[in-house]
Every structure is written in C-alpha cells, then in structure tokens.
Amino acid sequence: MEDRSQRLRSEFAGLVAARTKGRNPAVEQVFASVKREAFAGPGPWSVAMLSATDFVRTPDDDPAHLYQDVLIALDPARNLNIGLPSGHAIWLDAIDVKAGDHVVQVGAGTGYYTAILAHLVGGAGRVDAFEIEPDLAARASDSLRHLPQVQIHPRSGLAGDLPTIDLAVGYSKTNNSPVLKLFLSRLDELIERVSDRGAVITRKKDESS
User: Fold this and answer.
1) What's the predicted TM-score (pTM) here?
2) What fold does the segment set 97-201 form as a domain?
3) Where along the chain do the CATH 3.40.50.150 domains lie?
C-alpha cells in the first residue's frame, strides 16, 4: 500500500511541478513526500478543478482522487479548502524557499501547505503558521506535531507582532475578503522584515465570482 501511495505522490508531484519554471527542484521533491490525505480528513471528499463552478463528491475514499490538481473542501459552509497544488507549486518555485529560511504563513488551514513549507525549510528553518479557525488550527497542530520546525499559532496572523522572517505567505477565503485587505494593508510592514526575495500572497478560490 505504501508503494502505491508513494507512486501516486510521485506522479502528482511531477504533474504540479511541470507547471513551474523549475527554479527549485526541491518543490517537486516535497510534493512527492507529503501525504495529502493526512490533511484532508476521511473520504469520500469534495473536490474541484480551478475552473469548476462547484465541488463534486468523490465516489469513494481512494486517495488517488486527491492526487490530482484539485482543491479539497474542508468546510464548504465556511468556504474553506485545501488550495490548488499547481498554483502553490508555481508560487513556491518563484520565491525559491530555501533550507534554513524562516517563513510566516497566515492561514494554515489543516496544515498541508505548512508541511510543504516545513520540508522546504528543513530542520534548520522555521515555519510560524497562523490559523484563526480553532478547529483547523487543532487539526494542523495534531498533523504537524512530528515537525519540530513548525509552530501553529491558533489566532489571526494579522494582529499583534510578527517575527523577523525571510518570507511571508498569506491566504484568504476570497479575493475581496476583509482578511486579505488587512494583509495587503500590512504588506509594507511585512516586507520591511522580509529578505530581498520578497513576499508572496496566495488567494483561495473566490466562490462568489
């Protein structure tokens, strides 16, 4: 079973990495390493392509359904999902996250992309991940407890002090949400603490558009 899981992840990683510029080979490696099902909850799941108008239910709990370029619904009522892999691969490749980096992630969800970041920065790096939804923060903390370089903060990352960092990664439920606007308003402050590789803002699918 582990051989099949590894094969699925390897093929999936090649698929998403093919969308990038190939600046950082580690991006493909980490997508092949992190199990997506560990952060999606029990199946069947509701998934969607980026161009889809709605999520569809998978016919069963075969993890193969998760190893496609799809969003995975965590809570449709709150418009919460695990974001599009190819989009994240493109952004992570563009900012070239390196071993030893200190990253602040605003919007950890259940921790899938937190795990991706943790593998990119390695044991010498650090990921401070903020998640305002208590249930998601608890799930992320549980799923990531084996990664000592990760600290989950169960609160907003847009209020209070943030540490000196190398990279900033922000997430929003919609492109026009108050959370995103607040993140944008603090971007200059964040960039003052960011290395010359800059910051990335990623936006979850806007179901209202």
Assistant:
1) 0.82
2) Rossmann fold (3.40.50)
3) 97-201
